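Table 4 source record.
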Amino acid sequence: MRNSLNATNEEARFLLLHIDLDKDHANVMRDIVLDYCKSKADRLELFHTTKMILDARATFYDRLLQYSSADGRSTTSEIYDKQSNGWKRDEPTCLSDFTGRPVVFEMCEEHVDGAVCLDLGCGEGYVARKLTAMGSKKIVGIDISPGMVEAANANRDRSKGEFFIVGDVSKLKRNLLETTNKTNIMPGAGFDCGLFDLSVAVFVFNYMNISSMSATFRDVFSLLKPGGHFVLSVPHPSMTNHDGEIFGFNQTTGDKSSYFSLRDQQLEGHISTINGDSLKVRMFFKTFDDYIETARAAGFEIVQVKEARVQPEHLSVKKDFFESLNDKPLHLVFKLRKPQSMQSNNKGSLHAANTLNTLPKRLNWPKVAMRNPANAFQLVIPDEAERELTEAAIHCYENGISVNDLQDGTASLSQDFVSLRVFAHDCRMALLHETGLVLLKGLDLGAFGVAESERLVVCSRLAYYILCDHVGQVDSTARGCLFDVKDTDVDAAAKGADNVLFSVSNCEADFHTDGASKDRVYDAVGLLCIHPSSSGGKSKLSNASMALDDLGVPKFIMHELLRPTPRDVLENGGSKVCAHRKMSMGNILSRNESIMTLRITYNSYPIFSLDHDRMRFRYMRHWIETAHRKLNWDVPTLLKVAMDCLDDKLNKMCCFDEKLDSGDIMLVNNAVIAHARDAFEDVPGEPKRHLVRCWMELQMFDLGVSEN
């Protein structure tokens, strides 16, 4: 079924569930599902139980396919574990060492000197050793066969710059993230904006189906630096018609002249060495178009394609070995390039601070960051930078300069902020390219005055604004430069509440990103804690990019997270439940039921927007549910299941669950990191919880359009 439909294992699992159901049985199952999908807990339990059953069914079918063939077909890992000794060599021995690999090395030659390289399907290290001899500074090899990797690591000539790990290249980034201690790779920005100058994959993709190959291409694209190259070799598609003594594949079914109908079918084959040994090989058949379209879909430019063959010098060395394959196309070798600039894929005005056409980079964390968030995400403001902030804030306060004066340019600061500029640059790089969040410590609010004093609050806001203005461009278009996050005795989650922000309520706010407008995004969110709550109010953080990777839902449920979904419309000007915020006539008209229906329908966009190694996450479940309620629509069951799974994964992957202390500043990449907050209570007679929010634009710095 996978071969004929080009379906992934995951798609096959869910198709198998329904393959024998007639209409009556399907209707009965539908009723059962609806009965057991009334609550979030029920939906999650039904989903996880069903997935467990289907995983077991898929495992059964996989094992059945594996052992049903006449030869008890082995896995790729088993094939190479058994013959790892046969592949060990320091000089060319097998056919492709003469006819295929030299073409790979030739294409790598102008890029390898001083390069950091990635070798997919590294085997016992033959290619890695050659690239090292050609000038590679460092090379990381990954192979699915423990026996081959053991042989690579055991080679006594292995240089200090060669690292080999066991792993499945179809899960390349995950394997690299989980083995950073074995490869001397520094986790952080490189996993999403480029670690390697050059990647090679020598006869790897013939062991992978089209779906797995596509996943690997996407990972390689992400891991390459801009302008980096990817060189790969595969058996030539025409070799399905050849089953000779030296090299070939055994096509047991169908017409020998078949081509397109063979796509993704697994063919067993062999390749010989000049010593007379025969080594087992395998090919999942792919057409020329499969390779070309997969490369283009991943974002690569195709630099060169070459058909490798027996050359005259081969015949002069060992004619009896090469002659039967003379004049036949044996291998295909591709040279691909990651574009130097991705701006062409992100059309639109780069100078617009709120452009929606430039997706930020995906940021994934290594396990060590998840286990030690304090070390991974926490930064202490340098003493000199703190002194510059403190002096500037006090100067502004004593001279009557407000945050708004600084923002609109009616007042300016003469200080150079030498230390602050360097520190702000580090924060911006962390937000855009490394962790996506920073927790800043070291701002002493006590230097501004006593607790709750007007001087302390004003100076704290000034210092906070100056810091944020150095990190990015502070947005003032929606709710001013800075917004006080305080409880105003309203319940944002109350039934019938309209246009009420969670930032003016003390109720719990589930994982979300800031902003609910289709036409406006905020790259980063800042929160300064002037005073924490007496009870509750913990902040929570979770990586939405990693949650998406680990979600494990089938495509028809994933579709719910990728399609446009209506959101409620939020705006300045009062609400129905805030007595002290009377609605203006303009708000009354704009929030008229019939007009709101049109506005909400327009205000639709995906929860996840994806493009290669870039993404934008825009989510708050509450605004999706209130939008459907105002439209008199039921929230679709599949969307509920998708959001249940997403919420569950974000909670399980929560890496920070702490209350901010006075003077703490939290900066969050609003396109990648989801944040949440516990409910809290202010105790009478004690200072009330007071945080200050700031929205910033950072994409212009990422794209190199302007300098701060």
